Amino acid sequence: MQLTRRDALVALGAAGVAVGGGGAVLLSADRDAAEEADGPLGDAAATTLVAAAEVLYPSAVEDVETFVTEYARGRAADQPAHAAGVADAVAYLDDYARAWHDEPFAALDPSRRREALHRMDADSADPDPEGSDVERVRYYVVDELLFALYSSPTGGELVGIENPRGYPGGTASYRRGPTS
Fold first, then answer.
1. Running DSSP on this structure, what letter comes out for residue 180?
2. Which residues contact 57 (CB under 8 A, 6 or more apart)?
3. How many domains, in total, are found in the chain?
4. Cα–Cα distance for residue pair 49/46, rounded to 1 Å
């Protein structure tokens, strides 16, 4: 299943980021500004988020890099405090990977990335933006990436959610019965 920029816009809307009819233009401008300023979610943080998404998302999902980058930078531009939390969690994730594998998280192969997330208990920790480093990784990286995917039309379709929050889906979806 191909993730698109439209999926990123819908996910941003579900996250409370204001993106109207000019949302695609907004995302493009945000990306250019982020590349120039290398703010809290510069290239290194975006690369780490993409690497995490590659192991968190189902293998049927394609074009993860564009989707995650557009979503993360769009959210960072609208919610700088959240972006700072993401940047801190990503920095901890990289430090953790370096301590165990002598490489940043994104440089690890997918099986070692999965192992690193599991070893730090990011898969079972309580998500807490004010909690321990691992709880913040769960909140700002794991849960954030999964929320973005499953609140998009393409990601919602993977799990049978026809109309994720913020995506109306059209009148045809209201006229047919549930899918099994």
1. -
2. 64, 145, 149
3. 1
4. 5
Domain range enclosing 94: 5-170
The structure's pTM equals 0.79
Please return the burial class of 18, using the count of CB atoms within 10 Å of its CB with bins 0-12, 13-18 and 19+.
exposed
Q: Which helix (H) or strand (E) holds 135?
A: helix 133-137
The three-point CA angle 21-145-131 to 5° equals 120
pLDDT, average across residues 152-158? 81
Q: What is the DSSP string of 41-84?
A: T-HHHHHHHHHHHHHHS-TT-B-HHHHHHHHHHHHHHH-HHHHH
What length is written for the chain?
Answer: 180
Would you say residue 178 lies in a domain? no
**pLDDT reported for residue 35:** 43
Whether 23 shows a pLDDT value over 60: the answer reads no
Contact call for residues 74 and 27 (beta carbons, < 8 A): yes
State the virtual CA torsion across 111, 114, 120, 122 in degrees, nearest 10.
180
The answer to whether 80 and 17 have CB atoms below 8 angstroms apart is no
For residue range 31-66, list pLDDT tens digits in order. Answer: 454 444 445 678 889 999 999 999 999 988 899 999
pLDDT category of residue 162 using cuts at 50, 70 and 90: low
Q: Is 47 inside any structural domain?
A: yes
